[in-house]
Amino acid sequence: MHVISSLDRMRAVLGHWRARNERIGLVPTMGNLHEGHLDLVRAAARRCDRVVVSLFVNPTQFGPGEDYQRYPRTRAADLEKLGAASCDLVWTPDVETMYPLSPGFSLLAPPALSCVLCGEHRPGHFDGVANVVLRLFQQVRPQLAVFGEKDFQQLLIIKRLVQDLALAIEIQAWPTRREADGLAMSSRNQYLNEEQRVAAPQLYASLMDMSAALAAGEDWPAVRDRAWQRLEQHGFTPQYLAWRSAEDLGAPQPGRPQRLLAAAVLGPARLIDNLALDGAPINAAIK
Ligand code: PAF
Fold first, then answer.
1. Are 141 and 14 within 8 A, CB to CB?
2. In the chain, which residues have pLDDT < 70?
3. pTM of the entire structure?
4. Could you tell which of 26, 27, 29 is best to mutate to test the pocket of ligand 1, judged by most ligand atoms within 8 Å of the CB?
5. Would you state the pLDDT for residue 278?
6. Does CATH number 3.40.50.620 belong to domain 2-174?
7. Cα separation, 113 vs 13, whole angstroms
8. Which ranges in the chain are annotated with CATH 3.40.50.620?
9. Which pLDDT score, from 0 to 100, does residue 284 have?
């Protein structure tokens, strides 16, 4: 497995692979890898001859007062996990390699997708994600890139980026890996103390309850309020509980894919999760 932080060196290795017509897959990460990330690596390996995993904690997607400084950096453990997975190249650029001009060119994500839900609570976050992902795509030029559904809004924005800028990259979405108690795997789970960790699966449990209540024909405002109170009782400060179109995050449309999305702060951690709604819930419930 190559571990590379120089763009020229990476291009040389990628050049050899391309000359042999090998298909290249990319899994962008910020490191601190868990089984959810390794699922993405395995998914890429099934579809590609070579897998590149990037480890880069991207400063432009963190807002003032957010966890950029304390975000867990676990390079040695990450390399060990990737060495045991089907990874061929680990791309570990530093900030100057990723952003050689300061200030440099900058991309703005479409506000309808990037200023709602998480974007409302993390202004500029998705612009930062779009900027780093476009740069990673340009550096690696993969045929396939794999992203987790855990960050569902991010996934939609990246799909739009590829569509809007006509990038020849297939985006593959991969389902969220969960702990045995339902909590979505996330690097930020390790910020939780013991008591908060016990409460944390309530976020997913609330999504499941909201889904069942909608399927049973209950009205959305009542469903949302009940879940909101339940989360508060377990020590969360909810930021949003939303029922949206899974295609554009607008109002859910009958007969079209729909998603429940949630974000809530629990102690020092901001947790997010989401759930596909099976089948189209009753139209009458859409308000
Ligand atoms: O999902 C993440 O870990 C990050 O947002 C990503 C896509 C690696 C960009 O920094």
1. yes
2. 279-287
3. 0.96
4. 29
5. 76
6. yes
7. 36
8. 2-174
9. 42
Which residues does ligand 1 sit against, CB inside 6 Å? 28-30, 58, 61, 129, 132-133, 151, 154
Was domain 192-276 assigned CATH 3.40.190.10? no
Task: Name residue, tokens 């904690």.
Answer: 57
Which among 67, 129, 161 is the best mutation to test ligand 1's pocket, defined by most ligand atoms within 8 Å of the CB?
Answer: 129
**37 is an active site residue:** yes
281 Cα: distance to centroid of ligand 1 (angstroms) = 31
* Parts of the chain belonging to CATH 3.30.1300.10: 192-276
79-131: per-residue pLDDT in tens? Answer: 999 999 999 999 999 999 999 998 999 999 999 999 999 999 999 999 999 99
Residue the block writes with tokens 């009753």: 282
Q: What are the φ/ψ torsions at residue 279 (nearest 5 degrees)?
A: 65, 175
Please tell me the distance from the alpha carbon of residue 21 to that of residue 38, in angstroms, as a whole number: 25
Cα separation, 139 vs 92, in Å, equals 12
Catalytic residue among 2, 37, 121, 234: 37
Residue 56: Cβ within 10 Å count: 20
